[in-house]
């Protein structure tokens, strides 16, 4: 049975290129895969001053609608907000949601952020605040060289949710930098970036201990998990 199309959405500072290895592995196993570059993340020279979370949401919604069948939508990090919003807009077009080291974000990622764009943190700040386990220095260097500032409007805007059907979409959190237990604790604490998880009726957690960027530190394992989710969906599981 043919598996559903897979759409891969990177987190902040990243374009479709961040998924290159995972996408290639999935395609080699027969999956239909599309990786997205969201508005403003194509080049450091792009004008990001007017780009909002709604623009990112529309880009995801358009890609999902363009697919030939309901998709497996895999979103990473900061894209958990826009990915969850997409599930609110077009729940009938999403067969499964996959949150890659993120959750179903609700509200504005950072309502008090005032700058036109958010730069990738310095190497020291990144090491102090993010899990870099398994990432090589070459990978981190490539990240620094290819990163594009995140549009400030994406951080500030709150997208309203109103379609209860989003809660019925089968969803998986792939826990990499944090454990499933820690994700559960964050939900209980009411953190915005995972708040929507508490309302999902069909949610499971998969442990993949590694960095916050598992598409680089454990691409094969991540591709196997996402591919397995797509296969399960095709089999009605």
Q: Would you write up a description of this structure?
A:
This protein is of the alpha/beta class and 237 residues long. It has a single domain, classed as Rossmann fold. 36% of the residues lie in helices and 14% in strands. It has a six-stranded parallel sheet, with helices on both faces. Strands 5-6 form a two-stranded antiparallel sheet. The longest helix is centred in the last third of the chain and has 16 residues, at 219-234. The radius of gyration is 16 Å and the shape is globular. It starts with 5 loop residues before the first strand and ends with a helix. The model has no long low-confidence stretch (mean pLDDT 97).
Compute the number of strand runs. Answer: 8
How many helix segments? Answer: 9
Low-confidence stretches: none
CATH topology label: Rossmann fold
Helix fraction? Answer: 25-40%
The CATH class designation is Alpha Beta
Write the H/E string, N to C. Answer: EHEHEHEEHHEHEHEHH
- Measure the end-to-end span: 13 Å
Largest sheet, in brief, is: 6 strands, parallel
State the fourth-level CATH superfamily.
Answer: Alpha/Beta hydrolase fold, catalytic domain
Write down the overall mean pLDDT.
97
Quick description:
The protein contains 9 helices and 8 strands. The protein is of the alpha/beta class and 237 residues long.
How are the elements arranged and paired?
Layout: E1 6-9, H1 20-28, E2 33-35, H2 53-66, E3 71-76, H3 79-89, E4 94-100, E5 117-118, H4 123-129, H5 137-146, E6 150-151, H6 152-156, E7 171-175, H7 180-189, E8 203-207, H8 214-217, H9 219-234
Parallel strand pairs: 1-2, 1-3, 3-4, 4-7, 7-8
Antiparallel strand pairs: 5-6
Helix pairs in contact: 1-9, 2-3
